[in-house]
Each structure stands twice: as C-alpha cells, then as structure tokens.
What we know:
Oligomer: heterodimer
Helix content of chain B: 40-55%
Mean pLDDT of chain B: 94
Distance between the termini of chain A: 60 Å
CATH superfamily of chain B: ACP-like
Radius of gyration of chain A: 27 Å
Helix content of chain A: 40-55%
CATH topology of chain B: Non-ribosomal Peptide Synthetase Peptidyl Carrier Protein, Chain A
Low-confidence stretches of chain B: none
Largest sheet of chain B: none
CATH superfamily of the largest domain in chain A: SGNH hydrolase
Strand content of chain B: under 5%
Low-confidence stretches of chain A: none
Distance between the termini of chain B: 14 Å
CATH class of chain B: Mainly Alpha
Number of helices of chain B: 3
Number of strands of chain A: 18
Number of domains of chain A: 3
CATH class of the largest domain in chain A: Alpha Beta
Order of helices and strands of chain B: HHH
CATH architecture of chain B: Orthogonal Bundle
Structural class of chain A: alpha/beta
Number of strands of chain B: 0
CATH architecture of the largest domain in chain A: 3-Layer(aba) Sandwich
Number of helices of chain A: 23
Largest sheet of chain A: 8 strands, mixed
Amino acid sequence: MATHAEILRRAKSLASEVEQRGRRVALLCSYNLDFIKPYLIVSASDLGAPIAPWIAPFGQFEQMIRADDSALWKSRPEALVLLLRAADLDAELAEGIEGVPPARRRARNDELLQRVLGLAREARRRFSGPILVANFVHDRPLLDLFDGSRPDGITHLIASLNLRMAEALAAESDMHVFDYAGVANRFGTDRFVDRRLWALGRIAVAPEAQEPLASSLARSIAGVTQAASKCLVLDLDNTLWGGVLGDDGMAALKLGDEHPGSAFKAFQRALRGYRERGMLLAIASKNDEATVREALDTHPDMILRSADFAAIEANWQAKSASLVRIAKKLNIGLDSLVFFDDNPVERAEVRAHCPGVRVVEMPVDVLHYVAALATVPLLDRPRVLEEDRARATMVADDAQRERLAATTQSIEEFLAGLEMVATVGQSDDTTIERISQLIHKTNQFNLTTRRHSLEDVRKLASASDARVLWMRLADRFGDMGLIAVGIVRVEGDVGRVDTLLMSCRVMGRGVEDAVLAHLVEAARELGAKSLLGEYRRTAKNDIVREYYRERGFAELSQEGESALYSLADLSAAERWPRHIARRDAASAKE
Amino acid sequence: MTDFEQRVCDVVAAALGESNGSLGMDSSQDTVDSWDSAGIINVMMALESEFKVAFQTEEAADLLSMRIIAEILREKGAK
Lengths: 590, 79
C-alpha cells in the first residue's frame, strides 16, 4: 500500500488534470475531511472516473446548503455527498448514544434522521444531480458485550436508523445511501477513528482507514454518475465449473456441494444475484455449443441454466471475436462488457483485440472468485428498477422473436406477426425515473445525447411549451417496458425535438416511425406548424445519422459533426405505422 | 546529509505539499509557510506510514523542525 507521502505526491501531480477532466463533487462533512482529499483524488483517478473534490469547511453544511449564493453552489457541483456523524450533529450524542437514556433514544434517533433528510431535501431544491448521504455507524468501542441482545441497544438502534434512511432516500429522486457504515465495518469499527487525529484536528477517520473510505467514496460517486456495465461475459471451464467439459465429460465436472465444486456453485449463485439486479450474463467459451447447452440444462448442480444467458458463444474462435458477436447481438457497446476468464492467455487476447472491454484479473483459487467480483466497480447499480429486473427475461424473449424471424417469409409478415402494441404517454411520477435512466444510458439510438438531470426532466414535463413523451412496447412474446423517450419544445409555431432516443433492442420494427409520429402529434398540439430535428454526433450514435433525412426532413444546416433538419409541413407528416397497435396512457399533465 | 536525513526531508516536503528537494535539515515551522497545524498532522501521518513508528498525541506538537523530527525518529529506532 502506498504511504501517506506517496499519496500526497500523486494527488499533487494529478491536480491540474483533475481540475480539467474531473467530475466536480462537493462534499459536506461534520468533521475535518480535508485529509481525505488526496486519497479521493488518487482513488478516483485509479478507477478511471476522476473527481475534482470541493470540500466545505467542516461543520458548515447547514449554511452552505441553505444559502443560495454559498461557495458550495458557486462550485457548480455535479454530485453532492453528505457525510454527517451522529456524534457531531447532536451534543447529547457527542459521546455516543450510550449517554442518552434508553427511553429517549428512539426519539433522539428520529430527530437525527429527520435533520439529515431535511438537509438532503433542502439541497435538492437547489441542485438536480445525484446526492449521496452517508449512513451511520457506531465508530467507537462497544462497551456492552450484550448490546446486541437488547432491542433498544445501540446496535439495533443504528441498524434501524440506517434502514429508515435507506427507505426514505429510495423514495427521493436520485438520492442514495453512501454506505459509510459498510466501510467502517469492513475496516473494523474499533480502529476506524484514531482518537489522536480527532483530538488534534477533528479528523474522524484513522490514517489507515482513509484509503478504504476514499476508494469506496470514489466508487459510489462513479456508481451514481456513470453508466454501469451491462453484461458479464463468462468463460466456462474452470470459471463456472471445475474441469474441462470437452475432455472430462459432464459427469466429471467439479460442481456440487463439496470443495472445490461448492466454490464454483457459490460463484454461480453470486452471478445469479447480478442477473437479478439487471445485469445480463453471456458465455464466451471454447467448446461445442450442443455440449455446453446439455451441461447447462441437465447437470443437477448447475445454478445458471442456458435460459439465464442472453447470449451463448461456444465455438473454437478467438474469444475477442465471440465478445464482438455478443455485443452486436445484445446491441450494446464493447465498453459495456466485463470479461471473466480464468485463463490469463485469453484475458490478454481480449485485452489486445477488444480494448473497450473491462477484463477482470481473476484469482487463481476459485475460493476467491466471488471476492474478485466485488472489486469490479462498474457492476455497481445504485437503484434497480423493475425494467432492470425484467430485462433478463426480455432478452430471452428476443431469442424467441429471432426464431420467428427465421420461419416467416417477408419482413412485413414478420412485423405483423409480432402483434406489437405501443402505449404512449407523458412523463409522470411513475415513469420519470425510467425516463431519466434511459436519458442517461442510451448511447446508440440517441439523436442529441442530452443528459438532462432528473430535475430538468421534471421541469420540462411541467412546462407549458414542452412535452416529455414516452413509449412502451409489448408484443406477443412479452412486454419490453418503456423503450423510447422524446422531448419536444415549441416556440411560436416552430417545434424542436430536444431529445429523441430509443432502446436499440426494438430497432428495425417500425417503432422508430411510431415514436416520431407521436412527437409530431405532440408538437402540433402545442401549436407547431413545422418541426426542427437535430442530430448531434457522438462516438456511438452513427446509427441514427440519417434518421431525419430518411423520414422526409430537409437538411437546414450542418455544423461540424452536427446537423439540423426541418419538416416544413406537419399536417402531412409522419403516419403511425399500421403494424403497431396504439394505446394512449392517461396523461399526467391534464 | 545522510540518506536517513534525506528521506526525512523528502517525506516532510511531500506532507507539506512542497516540491521534492526544497527542504533541508534547517527547515522548520519558521522557514516554511505550509508548516501549519494542518501541515503538522500530515507530517505525523506521513512519518508514521513511512518509518513504521507511532507518535503520542503530545509529540505532534514537537514536530516543528526537521532536526527535532530526525531526533524523535532516531529515538523511536527509525533508520
């Protein structure tokens, strides 16, 4: 581990780069956090998600948050972190909750929680980005050995406080728990505070705990500000099970309830957990596909079955080629893939040929596989939406759709055979989180790639001259959920498409026409006679470069990599495609 | 300057945010602006992790010049 002096030197050398490229993160703290700053700069930089931290003078969180013109708001933060210790917030709690008579502890805790939540909500009135709120920990020796036996003991009081904080923040938009207690617990609560540093400088984190705290902070900040990886690509032999399927045969595989089979089984269980949180799983293996499917679906101890995988590439080609095919099949970028393979040669091959893919350095011993997963930062998801949970199932439905495509003759017949139903509506409380999620993660079918914050979307949705529109899609194989978002604004009689994006999974089915028809209609309702469409080029949205031209828009101007198009006459405009049935959701705005 | 003294100077310089080689054995709180109370805590943490020693709380108040620091470190058996 780097020494304190080394961290300070590295942070200093990173300073100018971080000022330019780092995400501006404001930290408000009830104790002296200045000493964390170099660790945070270094950790975030090592993570590939550089941060330019702005740290409020300690104890000044109330003033900073409540004054519109405070240095905090002048720092124009992109994310906000509240690190407030119970002991610093409340004099009666200063020497720990053990100083409060048990009868009053609950009331005390309620006050504390409300104060912290109140501050977060106060910040929200002035700030639309993500807010992380540290939870609580008893960071001093626990004097009562049987504290855990007492329902009103410190252990359970803090646990219930943290549970209620999690529930309250989950109900707020883009607010999340920063698991401060988790950091302290993993480090060891008895050693987490160095009493000397507290006495000398009101520093509540021991020197050795600063690196773990900073790295967890950096990862949490990345988790709420960056798009997560979308798919875990796994090798099979000696990764999902012990032994080599092709050589040893299915019966000889190490997978079961005894070591080492039990360790492989545990790894599969951990992977299933990621799948349940919305991560796609795929296989890239040098094997025969039929043998692989047989093993997956008939081995009695297999946790993950073939239906759990969104893509199975079992062949004898280079793994990099398999990864490219997986990305293509799932319509995601290579940089959304995380690759897990026990063989260092395969890892090197993928690193060399698929530079965007995140390759996990796997431990040699299978007992450490699960722990290795925990160190991969881009698998973190602050919030799991219903759509995420359902995605794995939806991708399985896709496989059925592909089979249908293979059996019907013409594209028209295929599309008609899908029996698509699109539901359209305007943003409301039940859809806004998903809309915001799509705005932040859609890269390919995204005409303007404007990453509006949740709060901005809310404002647009309630503006009289704008509409935030969405579309859900279902077909006879399943419900794909909310798949497209459009934002249209109208000035005078000219409408402008601010945002138009769609999940790539539904491309090529005429849904892209339905979305535009829906937008045109909304623009017309707002009084527009013509409509401007914009294409803003990014590294990933080449796929929609000709979108407007293909739909009868005339090019007005081209500037660098962007272009502006116009549809002069809305009366004759875009028709809703006949093969998609349309349903209107009740509008929230009316 | 001995190797040990050089190491002490480098670590203290890093702790105070000064450039490498800018401090010598004559440097002290009186000659370096960044050697303030926050600087002293950084010096303490940097010395502890570099030389694997531990300071008492009251010793922090003594970390005011390079010579005193070198002396305290030697007393603690650091090389």
